[in-house]
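ok posting inputs for the phosphoric acid mono(formamide)ester job
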Amino acid sequence: MEWKQRHILDLDTWDRSELQYILEQTRSMDELLDRPIKKVPALRGKLVVNLFFEPSTRTRVSFELAEKFLSADVVNWSAPNSSTEKGETLRDTAWTLEAMGADAVVIRHGAVGAADYLARKLKKSVVFNGGDGAHAHPTQALLDLYTAWRKLGVLEGRKMAIIGDVLHSRVARSNIIAFNRMGVRVVLSGPPTLMPKIPEALGATFTKDPVDAVRDADIVYLLRIQRERQIEGMFPSLDEYHQFFGVDDRLLGSASPDALVMHPGPINRRVEIASEVADGPRSMILGQVRSGVALRMALLFVCLGGVRQ
Ligand code: CP
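and the output
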C-alpha cells in the first residue's frame, strides 16, 4: 500500500487498513529480531534525534535500538544538561537539531500537542510522538495492538477491559482509538474521578465495577496511577485502590480463560497489579516490550523510506 502518514502524531486519522499494514510490517521486523545479527542497512545515512523532555525507559531505549538495528545514525538528547536549561525554546532546539541534519525527531514531552507543534515547525524532519502529556502515545498503542494480534489472531468482536487512571492516560486514549478501529469492544473501569467525562466519545463504555469490566474479557489492560499528572484527593489511598481495582488472580478469574494481561509499564506492584498476575502465565508485559522494538523499526522504516535489502 502507498504509505500516507508523514508523521506519527496520533491515531485519530488512521483507518483499519493502515493499522493492518503496520501490524504486518511489524511482524517482518519481529522476525528480524530472531536473527543472531539483527542489524540491516535499511536506514543507512539517516539521522534520528531522540528528544526526551520526560523520563522514559521503554520508549527511549526501544526507539534507540530500532534506529540502530536499521543502521540509522542516532543522537540521544535529554533536557537536563541541554540548552533548555538556559531558556532555549522547544522550537529553537528542534530547528537547531534540524540544521544539523536530523531526518527524524522522536519527542516525549509533558505538554499536550508538543509533537504536533514540532511537526508544524520543522521543514524536513519526520516527527514521532513518544508521548505528549495526557494526550497520545501512538507507538505504545500500536505495539499493544500488535502484541494482541499476534496472540489472538482475529481482533474483531473481542472484548478489552482497561482498568485504572484513564483520565490522565495518553496510553488509554490511543489504545481505545486503535482497538476500537479494529473492531474490539472497549470497557473502562476505575474510580469515577479518574474517568473521562464522556467515554462514549472515545469509543468506549464505563463501569464502576471492575468485575463487570473484566467478565469474559479477552484482553485485561491495566494502567498505572499517573501521580505526576494528578491533583490530590482523586481517590482515598493506594491501598484502597488496590483493594477495589488492583487486578489479582481472583479478579482475573472472571475474564476469558485465555485472556491476555497487558500493561504499558512501568508497573506498580500491589497497586494496579498483583505480582501473581504481573509474573503469571497470561502476562504479556515483557512481550509488549519486545514488540515495542519491532513496531518502532516498522514505523521508522515506512516513514523514512527505508530500503529493503
Ligand atoms: N510505556 C512507556 O511509555 O514506558 P516508558 O515511560 O518507560 O517509556
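notes: Residues 16-136+289-305 form a domain with the Rossmann fold fold (CATH 3.40.50.1370). Residues 56-60, 131, 140, 264-266 surround phosphoric acid mono(formamide)ester (CB under 6 Å).
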